[in-house]
């Protein structure tokens, strides 16, 4: 467990602050997109209602007064379902608006903390903001998983019997159906309650100052050595990648050749440090990357 003094060092520039800032922007964008989406769906709902009514009216011209009662019942059903849909979407849109306002407030608090808060205040204040972001993300996820954003469409299904002939035993003019399909709205993926990462950022290129440290002593029998990559392991040893010889060579802390770690079937192009004494070697034309332990062999 790191002491609090270490955690608070450069906290404002930590990855946690940057990730939270991105999360806030993503949440805000999601709420804006959802509000626009629901507004559009309300318009589509009205258009579909109009289309359904036009279809009903066109069919009404071919039937007699006996169907007036059934027509009225169908209109009532249409109005009821249409009202239910609009009410549900308006209520949902109102909830979205409230959540969006809350996130906007958190966004304003976040910017104020970045400008005026000290490190400790920033550390404490972020907990509440992270909680709000997590709750907002869970709310959005709930909208998706519970089908609240699914597209419900008003459709009218005119009875086939009515279309063919008017009969006294017809009991239905048609029925109003609400079809549902997955929403087309694209939302941000978001993080899922990730732990806060408090490690300091790596220095940028402008902060790195080159310094001559060691000269590697190449054996005389390695005259064809073509170095294409080099890495320093945690224990101070050097890993050298020989493109021509298709091999990984190991040198000591003093730059003295120790041994050939591994011979490759294809020419290696590059290598990078992974962890402990493990490096990753890219075999370009082979389209593969190998994990190699500098102390032993390929993993």
Description:
The chain has five helices and nine strands, in the order ααααβαββββββββ. It is an alpha+beta fold and 299 residues long. The chain has two domains: 178 residues, no CATH class; 82 residues, Thrombin, subunit H (Beta Barrel). Strands 3-4-5-6 form a four-stranded antiparallel β-sheet, with no helix packed on it. A three-stranded antiparallel β-sheet has the order 7-8-9, with no helix packed on it. A hairpin with a 4-residue loop joins strand 4 and strand 5. Helix 2 runs parallel beside helix 4 and helix 3 runs antiparallel to helix 4.
Name the features:
single chain, 299 residues, alpha+beta, Thrombin, subunit H, 2 domains, four-stranded antiparallel β-sheet, 9 strands, 44% helix, 19% strand
Shape: elongated
Describe the biggest sheet?
A: 4 strands, antiparallel
Q: What level of helicity do the residues show?
A: 40-55%
The helix-and-strand class reads alpha+beta
**What is the number of domains?**
2
Task: Count every beta strand, where a strand is a DSSP E run of 2 or more residues.
Answer: 9
Q: What is the strand arrangement across the widest sheet? A: 3-4-5-6
What is the CA-CA span between the terminal residues? 32 Å
The residue-averaged pLDDT reads 81
Q: What low-confidence regions span 5 or more consecutive residues with pLDDT below 50?
A: none
Q: What's the number of helices?
A: 5
- Over all CA atoms, what is the radius of gyration? 34 Å
Strand content: 15-25%
Note the run of SSEs as H and E: HHHHEHEEEEEEEE
